[in-house]
Amino acid sequence: MNKKRVVITGLGIISPIGIGKNAFFTGLKEGQSGVDKITKFDTEGLDVKIAAEVRNFDPLDFIDKKEVKRMDRYTQFAVAASKMAVEDASLNVGALDQDRFGVCIGSGIGGLETLENQYNVMKDKGPGRVSPFFIPMMISNIAAGYISMTFNAKGPNMTIVTACASATNAIGEAYNIIKRNDADIMITGGAEASITPLAIAGFCSMKALSQRNEEPKKASRPFDKERDGFIMGEGAGILILEDLEHAIRRGARIYGEVVGYGTTADAYHITAPAPEGEGAYKAMKKAVEDAGIEPGEIDYINAHGTSTELNDKYETMAIKKLMGDYAYNVMISSTKSMTGHLLGAAGGVEAIACIMAIREGIVPPTINYEVKDENCDLDYVPNFARKVAVNYAMSNSFGFGGHNASIILKKYM
Amino acid sequence: MIFEKVQEKIAEQLGIDTDDITMESSFIEDLGADSLDIVELLMALEEEFDIEIPDEEAEKLVTVGDVVDYIKNNQ
Asked: Is A126 an 8 Å CB contact of chain B?
C-alpha cells in the first residue's frame, strides 16, 4: 500500500514570547527575549533567579473553571494550545471519523508543580489530606488524555517522554501513525510547565542553567562563546498533522509537509551528549534518508542549541559530519535564545518556528550572538531574522538519557 | 450557618453558583460531581469543621442535606 503524505494544517502555541501564532511569529522576527526574573515563586537561596515564563496566560480563556482546577499548568497549556490548533485548522470535530483522530503529546516531566504542592500538603497536614486529583493531575500522560476528551478523539493516543526530545519524538511518531494509515488526523507537539522551585534547584545542582541573573535578556546565548547554560522555559507547541488527501478533501489550509523523521539513542551517559554528537548525527542522517533527500537540500536547521557548552559544540560537529562543506552554507538558528528551553515542549514550538521560516520565508535569528566560539563556526543567523526562501527545514531535539530526534518539514507544493 | 459554609465549599470545589445548591441537591445527579470531586469536597469539609468522616459514612452522603446533617451531629 502507498504510504500516506502528512501535512500540517493547524498551529497552537503558548510561549514565553507570545500566545498564539501571530504573537509568536512577531517575537521571532523581532528577536524578542522572553527571559526575565522569575515571578512565580521566591527565588531566595537559589543560584538561578531567571527563566522564560509564559505571561498573561489565563486558562479560563480556554477551559471551564471546574476543569482548570483539576489540571496542572502543563495540561492547561496543552489543552489551550490544542484548542487554538483545532480552531486554526478549521476542524469540524463533530464531522470527523473519531476513531481515526488521535493524539500524541510530548512532555518531559508532567505535573511537577502539582507534585510539589501535594508533597507539601502531605508534610503539613498528613497523608489523609492529599488531593484525590493529585495522581491524575501529575501524571505526564494526562494532557493527551484531556485532549482526547476535549475533542472526542478516539484514535491512537499516547505520550512520549524523552526529556527534551519529547515533542520532536511525538511529532515524528504522529507522522508515522498517519503515514502508515492508522489515523487521518493527529494532534501532536509538546507541553511543559516546570518553572518550579524543585526543578530549578535540581537543574541548578547539575550546573545546567545560566546564572546570568543580572542580564536576563542576554542569558540564553546559544553558540556564543560566553554561554553558560540554558534558561528554563515553559509553554506548549501543538500542531495538527493530517493525511494530505483528507486535508485536500476538506479544503484545509496547508502550512507545510512533514517528510522526514529520525530518532536514535546515544547509549552513552545519563546527561552528557555522546562525544562529537554521534547520536545527534545519526538522528539527522536517518531523517534525511527518510525524506529521500540529500543533506545539501536542507536550507534551515532549527538547532537544539541549548546554550550549554557541550550541546552547542557537539551539535555543530554533528551538523558538519552530516553536511561536510555545505555545513558552512546552511542556516542554523536556536530559537531557544528567545524562548528559553521548553524541555519536553521545545520541539513543538520549534517545529512551529520552522513553519514560519517555510511559509513566510523568514528565518528566525539566534539572538545574543556576540562572541565567536572557535568550536562553533557555522552560520547561526546571528541577531537578526533573515528573509530568504526555505524549502526544507530540519528541527533537532536531544534529551537527557541520550535521546535524539530530528524531523524535516518541507514547503507544500 | 453550616449550610451556608457547605454551600460555599461546594461552589468553590465544583465551580458552580451557590444559588444552584440546595439541601436537596444530589452531588452526582444534580451538581455534576464525580467520585473524586466528592472525596476532595469531604476532605475540605473535614478541615473546615474539624471533623472526621470515615469512608463507610462518606458512602451514605448523597445529598447536600446528608452532609449538613452529618456535620451537625458530629461536631
From this structure: no
Interchain CB contacts (distance < 8 Å): A and B: 22
Judge whether A66 is closer than 8 Å to chain B, CB to CB.
Answer: yes
Q: Please give the model's pTM, rounded to 2 decimal places.
A: 0.96
Which domains, ranges and CATH numbers included, belong to chain B? 2-74 (1.10.1200.10)
ipTM of this complex: 0.89
A6 forms beta bridges with: A243, A258
Rounded mean pLDDT for each run of 10 residues along chain A, 413 residues in total? 91 98 98 98 97 97 94 98 98 97 98 98 96 97 98 98 98 98 98 98 96 98 98 98 98 98 97 95 98 98 98 98 98 98 98 97 98 98 98 98 98 95
Region of A36 please: left (phi>0), alpha (psi -120 to 50) or beta: beta
Burial class (CB in 10 A: 0-12, 13-18, 19+), A409: buried
- Using alpha carbons, select from A318, A297, A308 the residue that is nearest to residue A396: A318
Q: What is A261-407's CATH topology?
A: Peroxisomal Thiolase; Chain A, domain 1 (3.40.47)
Q: Which residues of B touch A68 (CB under 8 A)?
A: 15
CATH class given for the domain over A6-249:
alpha beta
**What are the residue boundaries of the structural domains of chain A, listed by start?**
6-249, 261-407
B-chain residues within 8 Å CB-CB of A71? none
